[in-house]
């Protein structure tokens, strides 16, 4: 992750802790303009969406990150964990368990 993106992610994490979700999302989106192909940034945006209660978008961000991180096992695992949490929050426990197993399988 570039220094600029890292600074924006750090800023977004502080904003997320303050429950300032729109501003946190904006910070991550700025980082994504710098590095659109970085799956870790998509995971961070998914975490913001999850905190907002927007589990469908969080799942979508996780799936995008998973597709981008095939050759990065830790990022891929984090993406599948995000997907599992988002599915579980929507009561899709069978699919959540499958995603959880995928997360564990790539670790």
Automatic annotation (TrEMBL):
InterPro entries: TPR-like_helical_dom_sf (IPR011990), TPR_rpt (IPR019734). Keywords: TPR repeat. Signal peptide: none annotated. TPR repeats lie at residues 5-38. PROSITE patterns: TPR. This is Tetratricopeptide repeat protein.
């Amino acid at each position: 992750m570039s220094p600029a993106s890292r600074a924006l992610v750090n800023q977004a994490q502080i904003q997320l802790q303050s429950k300032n979700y729109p501003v946190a999302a904006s910070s991550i989106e700025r980082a994504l303009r710098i590095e659109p192909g970085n799956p870790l940034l998509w995971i961070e945006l998914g975490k913001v969406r999850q905190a907002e209660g927007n589990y469908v978008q969080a799942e979508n961000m996780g799936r995008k990150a998973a597709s981008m991180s095939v050759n990065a096992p830790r990022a891929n695992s984090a993406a599948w964990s995000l997907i599992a949490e988002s599915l579980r929050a929507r009561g899709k426990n069978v699919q959540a368990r499958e995603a959880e197993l995928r997360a564990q399988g790539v670790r």
